[in-house]
Amino acid sequence: MLGKAAGYAAYQDKDAKTLLVEQHAPLVKRIALHLMARLPASVQLDDLLQSGMIGLLEAASKFDGSKGAKFETFAGIRIRGAMLDEMRRGDWVPRSVHRNSRLVGEALESLEQQLGREPTDNEVAAHLNMSANDYHAIVKDVAVGKLVGIEDLGTPIDTLASAVQGENSASPTDNNYDQLAEERFSVAMVEAIKALPERDALVLSLYYDEALNLKEIGAVLEVSESRVSQILSQAMARLKTKLRAWTQT
Asked: How many whole angstroms separate alpha carbon 83 and alpha carbon 63?
């Protein structure tokens, strides 16, 4: 009798997971298209969709509704993470992108310390000994050529997903170094985001939390789509610079 009950419960659980996957399959395509807008033409949509579906399946198998989180939020993290992992394996990011991201971040940080405020684009360009047009080209290169997601800063997908569900990265009795490092990195990242200029933090929130595209964010801020792209890239460059001690390998 107990065996039958356990079997029925397992069947119901499996059926619920299948339903979650079916209901949220469109989420995979939405996230893939969201990422495709910032990727080179060499990246295929089908590759993102395939890796995203794997992420969705993993999310359905690991989701715990009793934690109070929405499945869509939990699944979105794992789907995006699976796609990012696929891109990292492809190693498509040019070295110039990493170099430019570092240059912009260091210039922004240096000027903010000197001026006591957020520098203008022209001031950053002058600091880098280049024209405003060349600076904007570099910022565009960083925006288009690199996946600028919170996950790409080094936070493991499982850690982010656990945070969404209200779990601790490490239990009081867990002495595992990796888990402790992940927890401290998460704290450092939160502090780094708090230290960003208000506009940068807002754009990050609208882009990653609210999943608005660049055009929609531009409408909110009443600026051009290209300007939003620049703000987003500069915000991520700032974060990477502030978190350099955690992300350098």
From this structure: 19
Region of 98 (left: φ > 0; alpha: ψ -120 to 50; beta: rest) is: alpha
One-letter amino acid at 140 equals K
Give the amino acid at 108.
Answer: L
Decide if 178 contacts 229 (C-beta within 8 A). Answer: no
How long is the chain? 249
Look up residue 195 and give its two tokens. Answer: 């230290």
pLDDT tens column, 9-50: 444 556 778 888 999 999 999 888 887 776 666 678 888 899
Helical (H) or strand (E) element with 178 = helix 177-194
Token representation of residue 177: 């170094």
Cα separation, 61 vs 185, whole angstroms: 26
Indicate the pTM of the whole model: 0.47
Neighbour tally for 8: CB within 10 Å:
10
Predicted pLDDT at 35 = 78
